[in-house]
Amino acid sequence: MSAQSTTFNAQELASLDDQLSNRFIHLDPAGYFIIYIDKEARLICAEHYTNAINEKGLAVDPETGEPFPCTGSLKRTPTTVFKARTAKELGIKITEETQPCPISCLDHALYLGREFVKAEIALTTGQPYIQD
Fold first, then answer.
1. pLDDT score, position 17
2. Distance (Å) of CA 3 to CA 10, 15, 56, 100, 110
3. Are 104 and 111 in contact (CB under 8 A)?
4. Which residue from 77, 103, 105, 119 has the least number of CB within 10 angstroms?
5. Torsional sign, CA 38, 76, 30, 105
């Protein structure tokens, strides 16, 4: 396989991934995660937050019923902060060691697994991590 066809395929795959990232998704009523890496501690971190889903399918504050702003200006306290050295360790802490499990949708679990692997790669390579 030539380098040109490899590059073309990588661009095609990136385009497909971008398209899939923009589709409508049903939000997990069990909550959402903010994922980041702690370079000093060499850990992948996942903060879990509760939410409710309104009749329009929007994530809303369970206390006020108000939709969460998309600007990142909302200051909330996570229900739990999970930390681990690898994507697999983090997944096990969340899905096997936490009861009840804070994930109730399979598509959410798959998304988190992909993000945890991206965060692990960023942590091991020194690259920045940005959650999709």
1. 85
2. 10, 18, 46, 48, 31
3. no
4. 77
5. negative
